[in-house]
Amino acid sequence: MVRTVALENGKVKLIDQRKLPLYLEYKTCGNYKEVAEAIRDMAVRGAPAIGATAAYGMVLAAREFMGLGKEEFLSSLLAASRELAATRPTAVNLFWALREIEQVINEHRADNIEAICRSILETAEKIAGDDIETNKKIGEYGNTLVPRDANILTHCNTGSLATVEFGTALGVIRAAHGDGKSIHVYADETRPRLQGARLTAWELVQEGIPATLIPDSAAGTLMRQGRIDLVLVGADRIALNGDTANKIGTYSVAVLAKENNVPFYVAAPTTTIDFMIDTGEQIEIEERDRSEVTHIDGVQIAPDGIGVYNPAFDVTPAEYITAIITEKGVVGYPYEEKLRNLKV
Hints:
This protein has a seven-stranded mixed sheet with strand order 6-5-4-7-10-14-15, with helices on both faces. The chain has eleven helices and 15 strands. It has two domains: 5-136, Up-down Bundle (Four Helix Bundle (Hemerythrin (Met), subunit A)), CATH 1.20.120; 137-341, 3-Layer(aba) Sandwich (Rossmann fold). The chain has helices at 32-40, 47-64, 70-85, 92-107, 113-143, 169-178, 195-207, 219-224, 250-259, 291-294, 336-341, and strands at 5-8, 11-15, 26-29, 149-154, 182-188, 211-214, 230-233, 237-238, 244-247, 264-267, 295-296, 299-300, 313-316, 323-326, 329-332. It is α/β, with parallel strands linked by helices.
């Protein structure tokens, strides 16, 4: 198990996930703009990991602006927060973490600059530390839903690489494996960026968890053959009614699961719940560059002149989700009142 992001020697150190699975390399960011670039270019990805990384980015911003006057220091911090927030529009943990930092700035704006910097650092470290503990609790609750013998389908990557450490949906699998359960994971490749093939498969191999990599298009066949007992996915944003935005292709897997009577579980921290939106229709879906579809590792696989539609996420309606696993427990459909209660 690896730690995805940390603050070391005054810099943000993160696993460069673009290099996996062939190379485990670390990227070091010396200022908040480099952190923003790392998030935007998906050197780091996964909603919880993005949130913690952005919080660390604000630590670097505070140190960078320490030589300014008080008012310019504060306004520059808020500008840095806006720049970090603009990197990825869908993952709500990013905005949550930055709001936590901004709240601390406002609460301590009467303090001297050094004290504000210390408060930002303490908050960022708390966000990262809480994420690890939260993921372990999600794993414990989710483990209660996993049979002693289970074949589990995953989509995208929801492990340590998507969080600070341990993982959400893959954290449930990690907990079940640690509990001695006989599990086998079917990891779909997750086109177009292949997070399942590059990242989830890598984590499973590292952990020694039995697993098989499949093309995305094989999921339905496996379900129809009775070879999948449950589906475990993560989330980038959950609306109050339970509609869930996650990596593109999640909705297709959910439809197949419902058709084949396979339980479909979402594992996510309560920080991924957007208490300000009622339904998934209000979630902004990021669209990424056409080259992610037309090229693989720089090699062109599609003809010039072809149109490309490349949404990074889709929204799975709440009625397709069997239950949502959080650090505060497991909630089932219908979701709105139950999710609202988790805010307390």
